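To close the section, here is one more complete example, presented without commentary so you can practise reading it yourself. The ligand is glyoxylic acid.
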Amino acid sequence: MAHVVVTRPLIENGLKELQDAHTVTVCDPPEGAARSEDELIKLASDADVLLTVLADPVTERVFEACPNLQMVAQYAVGIDNIDLDAAAAHNVVVTHTPGVLTDATADMAWALLLGAARHVTAADQYVRDGTFERWETTLLLGTELADKTLGIVGLGRIGAATARRGLGFGMDVVYHNRHRANPTVERQTNAEYVALDELLATSDVVSLHCPLNEDSHYLIDADALATMKDTAILVNTARGAVVDENALVEAIGDGTIAAAGLDVFEDEPDVHPGLIEQERAVLAPHLGSATTEARTKMAHMCVASITAVLEEHDDVPHRAVENGSQWK
Ligand code: GLV
Ligand code: GLV
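Output:
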Protein backbone atom coordinates (compact mmCIF):
# COMPACT_ATOMS: atom_id res chain seq x y z
CA MET A 1 0.00 0.00 0.00
CA ALA A 2 1.20 3.45 -0.82
CA HIS A 3 1.90 5.90 1.98
CA VAL A 4 0.14 9.23 1.65
CA VAL A 5 1.27 11.94 4.06
CA VAL A 6 -1.15 14.81 4.57
CA THR A 7 0.55 17.77 6.22
CA ARG A 8 -2.47 18.85 8.27
CA PRO A 9 -6.09 17.75 8.83
CA LEU A 10 -8.49 18.56 5.99
CA ILE A 11 -12.24 19.01 6.00
CA GLU A 12 -14.12 16.09 7.59
CA ASN A 13 -14.45 13.04 5.34
CA GLY A 14 -12.43 14.77 2.62
CA LEU A 15 -9.98 11.88 2.36
CA LYS A 16 -12.31 8.97 3.05
CA GLU A 17 -11.88 7.21 -0.31
CA LEU A 18 -8.14 7.48 -0.02
CA GLN A 19 -8.11 6.15 3.54
CA ASP A 20 -10.04 3.08 2.41
CA ALA A 21 -7.41 2.21 -0.19
CA HIS A 22 -4.05 3.42 1.15
CA THR A 23 -2.08 4.17 4.28
CA VAL A 24 -2.84 7.77 5.02
CA THR A 25 -1.00 9.70 7.73
CA VAL A 26 -2.70 12.93 8.63
CA CYS A 27 -0.27 15.16 10.54
CA ASP A 28 -1.25 17.54 13.29
CA PRO A 29 -1.03 21.19 12.30
CA PRO A 30 2.45 22.65 12.89
CA GLU A 31 3.00 24.47 16.17
CA GLY A 32 3.80 27.73 14.49
CA ALA A 33 2.49 29.10 11.23
CA ALA A 34 4.46 26.84 8.93
CA ARG A 35 6.84 23.92 8.96
CA SER A 36 10.51 24.26 8.18
CA GLU A 37 12.02 22.18 5.37
CA ASP A 38 13.51 19.89 8.04
CA GLU A 39 10.19 19.35 9.75
CA LEU A 40 8.53 18.62 6.43
CA ILE A 41 11.29 16.15 5.52
CA LYS A 42 10.80 14.35 8.83
CA LEU A 43 7.13 13.85 8.09
CA ALA A 44 7.58 12.96 4.44
CA SER A 45 10.81 10.94 4.35
CA ASP A 46 9.09 7.66 3.39
CA ALA A 47 6.02 9.15 1.69
CA ASP A 48 4.94 8.11 -1.80
CA VAL A 49 2.55 11.03 -1.94
CA LEU A 50 2.61 14.31 -0.05
CA LEU A 51 -0.56 16.37 0.27
CA THR A 52 0.50 19.96 0.97
CA VAL A 53 -0.84 23.42 1.69
CA LEU A 54 0.69 26.80 0.88
CA ALA A 55 2.61 26.99 4.15
CA ASP A 56 4.65 23.87 3.32
CA PRO A 57 7.99 24.70 1.69
CA VAL A 58 8.36 21.97 -0.95
CA THR A 59 11.92 22.69 -2.03
CA GLU A 60 14.76 20.92 -3.81
CA ARG A 61 16.00 19.68 -0.43
CA VAL A 62 12.65 18.10 0.33
CA PHE A 63 12.63 16.25 -3.01
CA GLU A 64 16.20 15.05 -2.39
CA ALA A 65 15.39 13.82 1.10
CA CYS A 66 12.21 11.95 0.12
CA PRO A 67 13.35 9.29 -2.34
CA ASN A 68 9.97 7.50 -2.67
CA LEU A 69 8.05 10.63 -3.47
CA GLN A 70 6.04 10.28 -6.68
CA MET A 71 3.66 13.13 -6.23
CA VAL A 72 2.84 16.37 -4.45
CA ALA A 73 -0.89 17.12 -4.35
CA GLN A 74 -1.37 20.75 -3.39
CA TYR A 75 -4.56 21.63 -1.53
CA ALA A 76 -4.75 25.09 -3.18
CA VAL A 77 -4.75 26.58 -6.64
CA GLY A 78 -1.57 28.60 -6.10
CA ILE A 79 1.65 26.62 -6.02
CA ASP A 80 4.24 29.29 -5.23
CA ASN A 81 5.48 27.18 -2.27
CA ILE A 82 6.57 24.35 -4.58
CA ASP A 83 9.79 24.29 -6.61
CA LEU A 84 8.33 23.00 -9.88
CA ASP A 85 11.71 22.68 -11.60
CA ALA A 86 13.01 20.53 -8.76
CA ALA A 87 9.82 18.45 -8.90
CA ALA A 88 10.35 17.85 -12.61
CA ALA A 89 14.02 16.99 -12.07
CA HIS A 90 12.99 14.35 -9.51
CA ASN A 91 10.13 13.05 -11.67
CA VAL A 92 7.55 14.11 -9.12
CA VAL A 93 4.07 14.94 -10.41
CA VAL A 94 2.55 18.12 -8.98
CA THR A 95 -1.22 18.70 -8.95
CA HIS A 96 -3.40 21.51 -7.57
CA THR A 97 -7.06 22.48 -7.25
CA PRO A 98 -8.02 25.07 -9.88
CA GLY A 99 -11.61 25.88 -10.73
CA VAL A 100 -13.41 24.69 -7.58
CA LEU A 101 -12.44 27.69 -5.45
CA THR A 102 -13.08 30.29 -8.14
CA ASP A 103 -16.51 31.44 -6.93
CA ALA A 104 -15.52 31.25 -3.26
CA THR A 105 -12.52 33.50 -3.87
CA ALA A 106 -14.44 35.93 -6.07
CA ASP A 107 -17.11 36.17 -3.34
CA MET A 108 -14.37 36.96 -0.83
CA ALA A 109 -12.93 39.67 -3.06
CA TRP A 110 -16.40 41.20 -3.14
CA ALA A 111 -16.87 40.85 0.61
CA LEU A 112 -13.67 42.84 1.14
CA LEU A 113 -14.57 45.32 -1.59
CA LEU A 114 -17.99 46.03 -0.10
CA GLY A 115 -16.51 46.05 3.38
CA ALA A 116 -14.03 48.72 2.33
CA ALA A 117 -16.50 50.74 0.25
CA ARG A 118 -19.10 50.88 3.05
CA HIS A 119 -16.95 50.77 6.19
CA VAL A 120 -18.55 47.49 7.26
CA THR A 121 -15.93 46.56 9.86
CA ALA A 122 -15.81 50.09 11.34
CA ALA A 123 -19.62 50.13 11.41
CA ASP A 124 -19.75 46.80 13.21
CA GLN A 125 -17.26 48.11 15.77
CA TYR A 126 -19.27 51.32 16.17
CA VAL A 127 -22.39 49.38 17.10
CA ARG A 128 -20.58 47.00 19.46
CA ASP A 129 -18.83 49.91 21.17
CA GLY A 130 -22.24 51.34 22.10
CA THR A 131 -21.53 54.51 20.07
CA PHE A 132 -24.78 54.24 18.07
CA GLU A 133 -26.93 56.89 19.74
CA ARG A 134 -28.84 58.38 16.83
CA TRP A 135 -29.10 58.22 13.03
CA GLU A 136 -26.73 60.78 11.58
CA THR A 137 -26.70 62.31 8.13
CA THR A 138 -22.98 61.98 7.56
CA LEU A 139 -22.03 58.95 9.64
CA LEU A 140 -19.53 56.60 7.94
CA LEU A 141 -20.26 57.80 4.43
CA GLY A 142 -19.08 55.31 1.86
CA THR A 143 -18.82 55.16 -1.87
CA GLU A 144 -21.22 53.69 -4.43
CA LEU A 145 -20.08 51.14 -6.94
CA ALA A 146 -22.60 51.59 -9.75
CA ASP A 147 -21.09 53.38 -12.76
CA LYS A 148 -17.59 53.11 -11.28
CA THR A 149 -14.71 51.23 -12.89
CA LEU A 150 -13.48 47.87 -11.64
CA GLY A 151 -9.91 47.07 -12.70
CA ILE A 152 -9.00 43.39 -12.68
CA VAL A 153 -5.30 42.53 -12.66
CA GLY A 154 -5.15 38.94 -13.93
CA LEU A 155 -8.25 37.87 -15.83
CA GLY A 156 -7.95 34.14 -15.09
CA ARG A 157 -10.79 32.13 -13.64
CA ILE A 158 -10.98 34.04 -10.37
CA GLY A 159 -10.42 37.42 -12.02
CA ALA A 160 -13.21 36.71 -14.50
CA ALA A 161 -15.59 35.57 -11.75
CA THR A 162 -14.85 38.78 -9.82
CA ALA A 163 -15.42 40.81 -12.99
CA ARG A 164 -18.78 39.11 -13.67
CA ARG A 165 -19.96 40.08 -10.19
CA GLY A 166 -18.95 43.65 -11.06
CA LEU A 167 -21.42 43.67 -13.94
CA GLY A 168 -24.20 42.83 -11.48
CA PHE A 169 -23.23 45.89 -9.46
CA GLY A 170 -23.36 48.09 -12.55
CA MET A 171 -19.62 48.61 -12.80
CA ASP A 172 -17.55 49.09 -15.94
CA VAL A 173 -14.78 46.52 -16.08
CA VAL A 174 -11.24 46.88 -17.41
CA TYR A 175 -8.49 44.30 -17.08
CA HIS A 176 -4.82 43.73 -17.55
CA ASN A 177 -3.12 40.42 -18.25
CA ARG A 178 0.09 39.17 -19.76
CA HIS A 179 -1.91 38.05 -22.77
CA ARG A 180 -5.25 39.32 -23.87
CA ALA A 181 -8.03 37.02 -22.65
CA ASN A 182 -9.95 35.05 -25.24
CA PRO A 183 -12.98 36.75 -26.80
CA THR A 184 -15.46 34.56 -24.90
CA VAL A 185 -14.07 35.64 -21.54
CA GLU A 186 -13.96 39.27 -22.67
CA ARG A 187 -17.58 39.02 -23.74
CA GLN A 188 -18.75 37.30 -20.56
CA THR A 189 -17.10 39.90 -18.37
CA ASN A 190 -17.62 42.83 -20.73
CA ALA A 191 -14.04 43.68 -19.78
CA GLU A 192 -11.83 45.99 -21.82
CA TYR A 193 -8.14 45.17 -22.09
CA VAL A 194 -5.90 48.07 -21.05
CA ALA A 195 -2.27 48.66 -20.08
CA LEU A 196 -1.53 48.31 -16.37
CA ASP A 197 -0.84 52.03 -15.91
CA GLU A 198 -4.13 52.92 -17.52
CA LEU A 199 -5.95 50.41 -15.35
CA LEU A 200 -4.37 51.86 -12.21
CA ALA A 201 -5.10 55.44 -13.24
CA THR A 202 -8.73 54.91 -14.22
CA SER A 203 -10.07 52.27 -11.82
CA ASP A 204 -12.12 53.07 -8.73
CA VAL A 205 -11.46 49.56 -7.47
CA VAL A 206 -8.31 47.58 -8.35
CA SER A 207 -8.65 43.86 -7.60
CA LEU A 208 -5.61 41.58 -7.84
CA HIS A 209 -5.95 38.05 -9.24
CA CYS A 210 -2.51 37.24 -10.64
CA PRO A 211 -0.32 34.42 -9.36
CA LEU A 212 2.82 35.32 -7.43
CA ASN A 213 5.96 34.90 -9.50
CA GLU A 214 9.07 36.92 -10.33
CA ASP A 215 7.11 39.24 -12.59
CA SER A 216 4.30 39.95 -10.16
CA HIS A 217 6.38 40.41 -6.99
CA TYR A 218 5.70 43.98 -5.76
CA LEU A 219 3.72 44.71 -8.90
CA ILE A 220 1.80 47.18 -6.73
CA ASP A 221 4.62 49.29 -5.32
CA ALA A 222 4.78 52.95 -4.31
CA ASP A 223 4.77 54.09 -7.96
CA ALA A 224 1.77 51.95 -8.83
CA LEU A 225 -0.12 53.21 -5.77
CA ALA A 226 0.73 56.79 -6.73
CA THR A 227 -0.79 56.15 -10.15
CA MET A 228 -4.11 55.15 -8.58
CA LYS A 229 -6.96 57.56 -7.81
CA ASP A 230 -6.97 58.98 -4.30
CA THR A 231 -10.51 57.63 -3.99
CA ALA A 232 -9.52 54.12 -5.09
CA ILE A 233 -9.88 50.86 -3.17
CA LEU A 234 -7.27 48.11 -3.57
CA VAL A 235 -8.45 44.51 -3.09
CA ASN A 236 -5.99 41.64 -2.76
CA THR A 237 -7.14 38.02 -2.61
CA ALA A 238 -4.13 36.80 -4.65
CA ARG A 239 -0.82 36.78 -2.79
CA GLY A 240 0.50 39.28 -0.26
CA ALA A 241 3.83 39.86 -1.97
CA VAL A 242 2.13 41.15 -5.12
CA VAL A 243 1.83 44.33 -3.06
CA ASP A 244 4.65 46.21 -1.29
CA GLU A 245 2.98 46.28 2.13
CA ASN A 246 5.14 49.15 3.47
CA ALA A 247 4.19 51.26 0.48
CA LEU A 248 0.53 50.33 0.94
CA VAL A 249 0.52 51.37 4.60
CA GLU A 250 1.95 54.74 3.57
CA ALA A 251 -0.44 55.14 0.67
CA ILE A 252 -3.53 54.61 2.82
CA GLY A 253 -2.06 56.69 5.64
CA ASP A 254 -1.34 59.74 3.50
CA GLY A 255 -4.45 59.49 1.32
CA THR A 256 -2.72 58.37 -1.87
CA ILE A 257 -5.50 55.77 -2.08
CA ALA A 258 -8.67 55.55 -0.01
CA ALA A 259 -8.83 52.02 1.34
CA ALA A 260 -7.85 48.38 0.96
CA GLY A 261 -9.48 44.99 1.41
CA LEU A 262 -6.85 42.34 2.06
CA ASP A 263 -7.16 38.57 2.41
CA VAL A 264 -3.44 37.92 1.93
CA PHE A 265 -0.25 39.39 3.41
CA GLU A 266 3.42 39.52 2.56
CA ASP A 267 4.55 37.57 5.57
CA GLU A 268 1.54 35.53 6.67
CA PRO A 269 0.42 35.11 9.35
CA ASP A 270 2.24 38.28 10.41
CA VAL A 271 0.46 41.42 9.34
CA HIS A 272 2.10 44.84 9.08
CA PRO A 273 1.27 46.78 12.27
CA GLY A 274 0.42 49.77 10.10
CA LEU A 275 -2.41 47.76 8.55
CA ILE A 276 -3.67 46.56 11.92
CA GLU A 277 -3.97 50.18 13.05
CA GLN A 278 -5.53 51.41 9.83
CA GLU A 279 -9.33 51.58 9.96
CA ARG A 280 -9.46 51.97 6.17
CA ALA A 281 -8.00 48.49 5.71
CA VAL A 282 -10.43 45.58 5.92
CA LEU A 283 -8.47 42.45 6.79
CA ALA A 284 -9.10 38.70 6.61
CA PRO A 285 -6.87 35.71 7.43
CA HIS A 286 -6.53 34.19 3.93
CA LEU A 287 -10.10 32.93 3.61
CA GLY A 288 -10.48 33.00 -0.19
CA SER A 289 -11.32 29.33 -0.56
CA ALA A 290 -12.78 28.96 2.93
CA THR A 291 -16.26 27.70 2.11
CA THR A 292 -17.50 24.22 2.95
CA GLU A 293 -18.24 23.71 -0.74
CA ALA A 294 -14.81 24.74 -2.02
CA ARG A 295 -12.80 22.97 0.65
CA THR A 296 -14.78 19.74 0.10
CA LYS A 297 -14.28 19.89 -3.67
CA MET A 298 -10.59 20.68 -3.19
CA ALA A 299 -10.21 17.50 -1.12
CA HIS A 300 -12.02 15.45 -3.76
CA MET A 301 -9.79 16.87 -6.47
CA CYS A 302 -6.66 15.96 -4.53
CA VAL A 303 -8.01 12.44 -4.03
CA ALA A 304 -8.80 12.08 -7.75
CA SER A 305 -5.30 13.19 -8.70
CA ILE A 306 -3.63 10.97 -6.10
CA THR A 307 -5.70 7.95 -7.16
CA ALA A 308 -4.72 8.49 -10.78
CA VAL A 309 -1.03 8.55 -9.89
CA LEU A 310 -1.15 5.56 -7.57
CA GLU A 311 -3.21 3.52 -10.03
CA GLU A 312 -0.85 4.56 -12.80
CA HIS A 313 -3.49 6.09 -15.06
CA ASP A 314 -2.15 7.63 -18.26
CA ASP A 315 -3.73 10.98 -17.51
CA VAL A 316 -3.38 12.61 -14.13
CA PRO A 317 -6.07 15.27 -13.66
CA HIS A 318 -5.25 18.77 -12.39
CA ARG A 319 -1.53 18.71 -13.05
CA ALA A 320 0.22 21.99 -12.33
CA VAL A 321 2.62 22.71 -15.10
CA GLU A 322 3.70 26.26 -14.51
CA ASN A 323 3.06 28.81 -11.88
CA GLY A 324 0.52 30.80 -13.90
CA SER A 325 1.97 33.30 -16.28
CA GLN A 326 -1.07 34.64 -18.01
CA TRP A 327 -1.54 37.87 -16.18
CA LYS A 328 1.21 40.34 -17.04
C1 GLV B 1 -5.13 29.84 -1.88
O1 GLV B 1 -4.55 30.87 -1.65
C2 GLV B 1 -4.94 29.04 -3.06
O2 GLV B 1 -4.01 29.31 -3.83
O3 GLV B 1 -5.73 28.12 -3.24
C1 GLV C 1 -7.29 30.43 -10.63
O1 GLV C 1 -8.12 29.53 -10.50
C2 GLV C 1 -7.27 31.43 -11.70
O2 GLV C 1 -6.86 31.08 -12.81
O3 GLV C 1 -7.67 32.59 -11.48
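Once you have examined the C-alpha coordinates, check your reading against these statements. Residues 102-283 form a domain with the Rossmann fold fold (CATH 3.40.50.720). The longest strand covers residues 149-153.
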